[in-house]
Every structure is written in structure tokens, then in C-alpha cells.
Amino acid sequence: MTESGVGMGLRGRSGIVSLVGESLTQPPAAERPVTILLGPRGSGASEAHSALMEQFGPQNPFAYVNLGVEHALLPRYGLALLARQLERKLPKYLRSHFPRLRLGLLASDHELRMTTLVEGRRTIRRELDAFQEQTEARYGDYLAAFFEVAGGAVGAPDGASSAALALLQDALRIGRRRLPSRKFTSSAAWYGAHPLIRSQDAWEALVELNLWRHNGDVDDQDRLDRVLFSAFLEDLRQNVSHSFMPRSYLLLLDNSHTEYGRRFLDLLIRARHDDTVVAGTTCDPLTIVASSNRWLPRWGPATGDQWPWRLRGPDRAALSDWSEHRPTRDSDDTWWYPLRLRDLNLDEVRIRMELEMRRHPDLAPFTRLAPFVHRLTCGLPRAVHQVTGVLRQSGVPAEDGAEQDRWLRTLPERTLRDGEDTPTLCDAALDHLLHGLDEGARDTLAECAAARDLSIGTRVLSPGDALFGEMRARWLLLSPSVAPTLHPWLRRLLLWRLARRPDDWDTVNELLAEHFRAGRRPVQEMYHRLAWGCTDEVTGYLVTLFAQAPAARWISEFNAITAAPNRLPTAGGPLQLFASLGPAAPSATITAESVIRELVTVRWLWSDPLTDPGMRLNDLIADGFNQLSRLRRNDVVALFNEAERYRHWRHPLTVTSEG
User: Fold this and answer.
1) Which of these, 428, 451, 424, lies nearest to 570 by C-alpha position?
2) Which has the closest alpha carbon to 570: 541, 530, 613, 624?
3) Three-state helix/strand/coil letters over 477-504
4) Residues 284 and 275 sit within 8 Å (Cβ to Cβ)
5) Deepest of 195, 360, 485, 501, by most Cβ within 10 A of its Cβ?
């Protein structure tokens, strides 16, 4: 729990709050999107839900449901939990009511004692009254009874602030809210007129709902769910048609990728589409923000080729953007608004660290490690939080210098206290990112992660494409179409784990190097030979290229090759590691070969934030490029510029291949 969900959860997500605010102020009948926040586990969707709750909850009716709970969250349970929260009394509005939904749930909940439809019609009102009185006597009101069977779905989202938690508790407060029997009549008439119900008699229609629930087949169960969702939307439309009522209601649906979450979203969108497009009624007044860390199967293959939507970024999210890009209303895909959550940039990481450490003034000096944390995690919010947690809990040297560098070198092995558990940072992060993936699959993924292009890694090292498809479906690929690469934080952790298996590390990189050699792709081959530790071969290739290629091309290939991962010893700082990799017999004269060999080694170390946390090797790289410029007769401007770039390094806002 944090002090401010707005400060944390919407850091780097400002477009989302603008979109929600805009949607909540639209006329009640205006069409609004089903905004879905997409990204891997830890991308901050749950925090965004908490921040939206805190931002808009005090003045607007809202409801939050976590659709990722372990137990079965039936659609009827989810509707009851949402309606119960939306009934919360707000100072500026009258209380909202859901008579149709309550009646439909009541009529289908308790199995009626009857032998014929006529008998059921005659006794149903008495049965409903008795059942309602029983539940109210026990729980205070009928909808509150659903807390007992599905209360785990309304727990506070990850990263919830104290303010958001207080709002949620207020929405869930138990109180007597009875549906008078006299209101049964008008609500029952609505069911009698519904197109999915065979009987046009109001009371027989309710008996039909009961039979679907307790004696029906799969199709009957589906029909019942559709009718209940339609009742929920009709109640909302009727609420906003009165004076002193809100224009819109905010629904926050967390972890919608689960089986029950997908079912809930499908029913909600289908009900909206059937009512608004097929039946031609006004649109419901819902502002919906869902989240998913999986590609939803209803969208087709995870390549996205068959889905009419193209993902949008959260920074410029707006109703106008949705209206401009939405597919035609012929398809229910028209209601989606998919926003791909981005990683935090450097400034956002720095601010987040400052906010997290505000309660610990003695840790303030560690905010200067923000560039290191950004390089290491690529700005994945959960990763930033975990790394900051280790810094806060452990005895990291406070002074910037060699001792701190050596400590940070082993950061993945440091423990992260989480309640009674004390896993290493590496294990805790992998368990979260790869939840549900067994150890065998994780070991294979670590081997495949040695290749920058995961599709090549899985093709060479893992039979079939299941593992690659799983990573794509989990939003764990940075570039899902061209040269798909694992998220840098996940890849770094997997390679850290693979480095603990030195024989497998060498074998994997040897196989990949041979694959690229056979395909005549020397840059990729040298990348894996350097990861394998073959610095002499890499130096030889770059020396030959230096004499033949333009300087700009040489720099480009040099950068690509020296971005290779390493499994160097964890002891020692960057300068000690650099000294240990020097030649046994250093050259007495400065030659292209000696300079390039030194440059290969130093930039290989520099490229890994764990090997050079403070980027202390910049000057050595700059000196190397200056020396190369003296050894070349022409085309030296690019080399001079590269030297200046390292000597006056400025951390980029976003992560690049250069750390």
C-alpha cells in the first residue's frame, strides 16, 4: 500500500486519467469505449486501477472487481459485486438502484419448489419474498450476500493507496438496502418483454430464468447470463434518466485475462452491442477500464494479424483517438480501446524512487542510482519497485564508489523480504513475470534468451513454437513483429540464471554462433562468440572490418557485437574485471589490433549495467575511439564524435541497446 495512488499508479499513465475524466463527463447516452490496459505482469495496470479509484472515486460512483481471483467468479457474482458498490451514496447524487438485476438474481438464485410452470407462476412472488427476507436477515441486504461467495474479488488492487482503500471499504459497507415487493411488478414486466426469454408473461419469465439456472443446459446458462447483463445495463440507463444522478459510472475490471475474466468481458461487450447496435437503444452510461496481461483469445491469433485494432499508447489516449480508429459498428470489436502500457522513462523512474523513499529520509542518497535502475529494469514498474525494495532493505554502501559497484554487481542474488518469505530478487522477479510456467520451461526459456531474436532462439534450441507464442501472449516481447526480443529485464534475469550453468551457457552460445555462421550473418555470429568469451576471434573480425568498411558502419557493427551478455565473475568492480580480461602479453606499441581488443573488452563490460553500474568505463571507451581516429588516415569524424559521445555521456530517457 502506498501513500498516493495518483502519484505512483499514474506516473507515466497521464493519458489514461484524462481519458477517464473525459468519459465520465460525457452525456449519459454517449458511446464510450471499453478501455483495456495491456502489458506484462508488473506493468502497473493494478496500480492504475488504484489511482483511478483515488482520482475519481470521491465524486463518482465506481466499482472494482479483481477478475484474477483463484476461485470461480461466476458472471452473476461479478454483477452483484459491481452493483453493490455502485449503490454507494455520494453527496451530490441520489443513490443508484438495480431493481431488474436484483430481481433476476433472486429469481434464478433459489431453486423453486414446483412441479409445473403454472404452479411456479402462482408461487414465485411468495418464494421471492421469503428468500429475500432470509438473506436480508443474515447479510443486511440481498446483494451483500454475494460478498460471502465472491468477496475475494473486491480486495484492494496491488499498489493501492490508503485513500483508495478507504473509498473501496466505503463502497462495500454493509447496510440494509431492501428491494420492496411492489417494485417486483415493473421489473418482472421488463423480463417478460426481453427478446431472449420465450414466455411473454412477466412471472412465467422469472420462472423460466429459474429453470435455466437449475435445470438448463449450457445454452440455457449462457442465455441467463446474457439476460442478467442486459438487466444490469438497463438499470444503469434508468438511473441516469432521473435528476440528480451521475452521467456515467466507472467500472474497474482488473486481471481480465483469466477464464472468468474473459467470460465476464465477453458478456458485457455482447450485452452492450445487442442493446445499442442490434436493438437500437441508447448506449449504457458505463466508463469501463479493464486490464489484461495476456492476449485475449477472442481477438484471434496473438500475432494480431486478424484483429482490426492496432495498439495505442497511453500518453495520448482520448475519446477522439478512439472514435477515429475504432472499427465499424458492425462488429463488437468497435467497443475496444486497447492501450499498450509502456515502461517508465528515466525521469519517471527517478520520481518513483523519490516517492517510494520519502518515508525513509536516510535512503535519499540512493535516488542517484535512478539511471542504473532504469538501465537494469528498462523501467518496468514492478521491477523498479522490487529493486528499490532491495536497496531499502539491504546494507548497500551509501557512498558512490568501487565498494557500491561491487555490491550492485550481485544485486540479483540479494534477498527481497516479502512477508515471511525471503527469496532472491532474481527468483522473486521471475516468479512474478513467469507465473504458471514450470521450471523446465523456464530453463529452456533461459537458453533461448541467449539469442536477441527470441524466434531464432526457440527455433534453434527449443522444438516447436509454443514457448515463443507463450511469451508473445504474455506481452513479454518488446518487438513482436520484427526481431522479437524479450523484455530486457526478463532477459537479463534469465541470462543471470543461465550463467549459473556455465556449460549450458557455452553450449547455447556455440550453437547460436554456428547457426549464424552457416547463415552468413557475421555480426550475430560474433555477438555469440563474444558471449562465449572468444575475444580474440571478435577482435580479429573487427580489425579486418576496420581496414575495409566506412567508420559509421564499423561503429554500428562494433556496438551490436559488444552488446553481448557475459557470465563474468561477480567479484570485483568494472576496473578489476577489465584488468582481468587484458592480454597475457600486452603489446609494446599501439596498433589497431591492440586498441580494438581493448575497446571490445571495455565496451562489453560497459554494456551490462550489473558489470558497470556507475558507467565508470566511459572515459576508457572515449580514449579508445580517440586512439582509433589517430590510426586511420581518413573518415575520422565519426570516430571523434563517438569519443565525445562517451566522454560527455547523457543518460537517455528511454533504454537503448547501449544500456
Assistant:
1) 424
2) 613
3) ECCCCCCCCECHHHHHHHHHHHHCCHHH
4) yes
5) 485
Exposed/middle/buried for 585, CB within 10 Å: 0-12, 13-18, 19+? exposed
Contact 254, 45 (CB under 8 A): yes
Q: Can you read off the three cell numbers belonging to residue 30?
A: 454517449
Could you tell me if 485 and 491 are in contact, meaning their C-beta atoms sit under 8 angstroms apart? yes
Round to whole Å and give the CA distance between 75 and 58: 27
User: 382 CB contacts (<8 Å, ≥6 apart)?
Assistant: 41, 42, 43, 44, 429, 432
pTM: 0.92
pLDDT tens, residue by residue, 101-112: 999 998 898 887
| Angle in degrees, CA 564, 453, 430, rounded to 5 | 80
The amino acid at 332:
D
Rounded CA separation 487/471 (Å): 10
Up-side HSE of residue 245: CA atoms within 13 Å toward CB? 19
Least Cα distance to 508 among 521, 498, 518 occurs for 498
- Taken as a whole, the chain contains a residue count of 659
Averaged over 48-67, what is the pLDDT? 92
Q: Cell numbers for 504, please give them.
A: 549450458
SS3 215: helix
SS3 category, 550: coil
The four Cα atoms 29, 32, 34, 38 give a dihedral, to 10 degrees, of -160
Q: Distance (Å, rounded) from C-alpha 123 to C-alpha 107?
A: 12
Query: Could you tell me how far CA 609 lies from the centroid of its own chain?
Result: 24
Candidates 598, 603, 599; CA nearest to 616 is 603
Q: Which of 14-18, 114-118, 548-552 has the lowest mean pLDDT?
A: 114-118
Beta strands at 62-66 and 34-38: parallel, antiparallel or unpaired = unpaired
**Grid coordinates given for 603:** 565496451
- 268: phi then psi, degrees, rounded to nearest 5: -65, -45
User: How is residue 102 written as a grid cell?
Assistant: 436484483
Instruction: Return the pLDDT at 3.
Output: 45
- Chain-centroid distance of CA 360 in Å reads 28
